[in-house]
Design a protein that fits this description.
Order of helices and strands: EEHHEEHHH
Number of domains: 1
Number of strands: 4
Strand order of the largest sheet: 1-2
Distance between the termini: 38 Å
Radius of gyration: 22 Å
Strand content: 15-25%
Structural class: alpha+beta
Largest sheet: 2 strands, antiparallel
Protein backbone atom coordinates (compact mmCIF):
# COMPACT_ATOMS: atom_id res chain seq x y z
CA UNK A 1 0.00 0.00 0.00
CA UNK A 2 1.43 3.39 -0.94
CA UNK A 3 0.38 6.41 1.10
CA UNK A 4 1.23 10.02 0.35
CA UNK A 5 2.64 12.12 3.18
CA UNK A 6 1.44 15.70 2.82
CA UNK A 7 3.07 18.89 4.02
CA UNK A 8 1.24 21.52 6.08
CA UNK A 9 0.43 23.26 2.78
CA UNK A 10 -1.30 20.13 1.51
CA UNK A 11 1.26 19.18 -1.12
CA UNK A 12 2.75 15.71 -1.25
CA UNK A 13 6.06 15.85 0.59
CA UNK A 14 6.94 12.15 0.36
CA UNK A 15 5.45 8.73 -0.12
CA UNK A 16 5.35 5.95 2.44
CA UNK A 17 4.99 2.35 1.40
CA UNK A 18 3.41 0.03 3.91
CA UNK A 19 3.31 -3.64 3.10
CA UNK A 20 -0.06 -5.35 3.33
CA UNK A 21 1.33 -7.72 5.98
CA UNK A 22 2.27 -4.82 8.27
CA UNK A 23 -1.05 -3.09 7.65
CA UNK A 24 -2.85 -6.29 8.63
CA UNK A 25 -0.85 -6.94 11.83
CA UNK A 26 -3.65 -5.89 14.20
CA UNK A 27 -6.01 -8.32 12.43
CA UNK A 28 -3.40 -11.10 12.44
CA UNK A 29 -2.65 -10.53 16.13
CA UNK A 30 -6.33 -10.65 17.09
CA UNK A 31 -6.75 -13.85 15.02
CA UNK A 32 -3.74 -15.36 16.81
CA UNK A 33 -5.28 -14.50 20.19
CA UNK A 34 -8.62 -16.02 19.13
CA UNK A 35 -6.98 -19.28 18.00
CA UNK A 36 -4.86 -19.46 21.17
CA UNK A 37 -8.01 -19.04 23.24
CA UNK A 38 -9.76 -21.85 21.36
CA UNK A 39 -6.79 -24.18 21.87
CA UNK A 40 -6.50 -23.31 25.55
CA UNK A 41 -10.21 -23.89 26.23
CA UNK A 42 -10.34 -27.23 24.43
CA UNK A 43 -11.16 -30.27 26.54
CA UNK A 44 -8.92 -32.30 24.24
CA UNK A 45 -5.22 -32.67 24.89
CA UNK A 46 -3.35 -30.50 22.37
CA UNK A 47 0.40 -30.83 21.83
CA UNK A 48 2.45 -28.74 19.40
CA UNK A 49 6.14 -29.38 19.01
CA UNK A 50 9.03 -28.39 16.78
CA UNK A 51 9.53 -31.08 14.13
CA UNK A 52 13.30 -30.52 14.06
CA UNK A 53 14.09 -30.56 17.79
CA UNK A 54 10.94 -32.43 18.85
CA UNK A 55 10.68 -30.11 21.86
CA UNK A 56 7.21 -29.07 22.90
CA UNK A 57 6.27 -25.54 21.84
CA UNK A 58 2.72 -25.48 23.18
CA UNK A 59 0.66 -27.82 25.32
CA UNK A 60 -2.79 -26.71 26.39
CA UNK A 61 -3.91 -26.69 30.04
CA UNK A 62 -5.91 -29.91 29.75
CA UNK A 63 -2.86 -31.80 28.46
CA UNK A 64 -0.57 -30.22 31.08
CA UNK A 65 -2.97 -31.34 33.79
CA UNK A 66 -3.09 -34.85 32.32
CA UNK A 67 0.72 -35.11 32.17
CA UNK A 68 1.26 -33.29 35.49
CA UNK A 69 3.96 -31.17 33.82
CA UNK A 70 4.11 -27.39 33.61
CA UNK A 71 4.66 -25.64 30.28
CA UNK A 72 8.07 -24.52 31.56
CA UNK A 73 9.10 -28.16 32.06
CA UNK A 74 7.48 -29.34 28.82
CA UNK A 75 9.52 -26.84 26.77
CA UNK A 76 12.65 -28.66 27.94
CA UNK A 77 11.60 -32.19 26.98
CA UNK A 78 10.37 -34.17 23.99
CA UNK A 79 7.36 -36.45 23.52
CA UNK A 80 9.66 -39.46 24.07
CA UNK A 81 10.20 -38.37 27.70
CA UNK A 82 6.48 -38.49 28.53
CA UNK A 83 5.75 -41.44 26.23
CA UNK A 84 8.89 -43.56 25.68
CA UNK A 85 7.24 -45.67 22.96
CA UNK A 86 6.39 -42.54 20.90
CA UNK A 87 7.30 -43.27 17.26
CA UNK A 88 8.46 -40.12 15.46
CA UNK A 89 8.64 -41.94 12.10
CA UNK A 90 4.97 -41.16 11.39
CA UNK A 91 5.82 -37.42 11.32
CA UNK A 92 7.60 -37.79 8.00
CA UNK A 93 5.08 -40.04 6.30
CA UNK A 94 3.35 -38.19 3.46
Amino acid sequence: MISPIKSHAGTIASIAEISREIAELPHIESEHIRIASILEQSLNEIYLFDTLTLRFEYVNRFAQRSLVYSMVRLRLITPMVVKPDFDVAWLWIS
